[in-house]
Amino acid sequence: MEAVLRKCSDLPAKDLIKALQSCKRVDLLYSLRKLQRLGKMEKPVGRFVGLHSASISTAFSLNDRSFDPSKEKYILVVHYEDSPEETRNFKWLRKNLRQHASHQGFRILDIAELDIDANLTSTVEDAFIRAHQIVVSFTPSHIEAVKSRSTACRSVVYVHDLMNQEFFTMNSVNKRFRAVIFD
């Protein structure tokens, strides 16, 4: 992303952002967010206002108070269960995560507790960006639902898409995704 910014340094920032939006390059817009966080941008870019539903919404607002990293640290927990045994295992995991995470100053953000009825994309993106760590509980039901792109767990499928995108953007370096597999 820094190379792209160097090549386009003589263009106004809003023109670059519009070009990225029209190309539907959410990953590059996300990279701008990372550069801003690292302090490698001279001044805030402002809000990315999307032209269509697939573009960046206010979830990627750089000046939005909900993205203040000094506020609270979150662990996003992604899960999908379809059997009583899987549910029991997940409840055990969530209980232990809440107990131990609170000692380290983290709050647990459960994907199932997000209000996705209003706007799935921005709600999930907001949670994804705010999360310092993302714990994914892989169960047979979860794996099958993601493979089949089940509509029953659209938010889970979308988080997996965001994780794949971030992993690709970070040159296959995993910084914050943690897998939990139950036998």
Please explain how this structure is put together.
The longest helix is centred in the middle third of the chain and has 20 residues, at 84-103. Helices cover 46% and strands 13% of the residues. The protein has helices at 2-7, 13-22, 26-37, 84-103, 120-130, 140-148, 154-169, and strands at 73-78, 106-110, 131-138, 177-181. 22% of the residues are buried. Strands 2-1-3-4 form a 4-stranded parallel β-sheet, sandwiched between helices. It is of the alpha/beta class. Helix 4 (84-103) links the parallel strand 1 and strand 2 (106-110). It has 2 domains: 2-66, no CATH class; 72-181, Rossmann fold (3-Layer(aba) Sandwich), CATH 3.40.50. It has 7 helices and 4 strands, in the order H-H-H-E-H-E-H-E-H-H-E.
Protein topology:
Elements: H1 2-7, H2 13-22, H3 26-37, E1 73-78, H4 84-103, E2 106-110, H5 120-130, E3 131-138, H6 140-148, H7 154-169, E4 177-181
Parallel strand pairs: 1-2, 1-3, 3-4
Helix pairs in contact: 5-7
Organism: Necator americanus
Protein name: TIR domain-containing protein
Helix content range: 40-55%
Here the CATH topology of the largest domain equals Rossmann fold
Give the class-level CATH name of the largest domain.
Alpha Beta
The number of distinct structural domains comes to 2
Strand content: 5-15%
Please describe the biggest sheet, giving its number of strands, its sense, and whether it closes into a barrel.
4 strands, parallel
- Counting DSSP H or I runs of 4 or more residues, the number of helices is 7
Q: Over the alpha carbons, how many angstroms does the gyration radius reach?
A: 18 Å
Backbone shape:
globular
Low-confidence stretches: 43-70
How many beta strands in the DSSP annotation?
4
User: What's the overall average pLDDT, rounded?
Assistant: 76
SSE run: HHHEHEHEHHE
> Mind telling me which CATH architecture of the largest domain this is?
3-Layer(aba) Sandwich
The largest beta-sheet arranges its strands as 2-1-3-4
Q: Structural class of the secondary elements?
A: alpha/beta
Distance, first to last CA: 40 Å
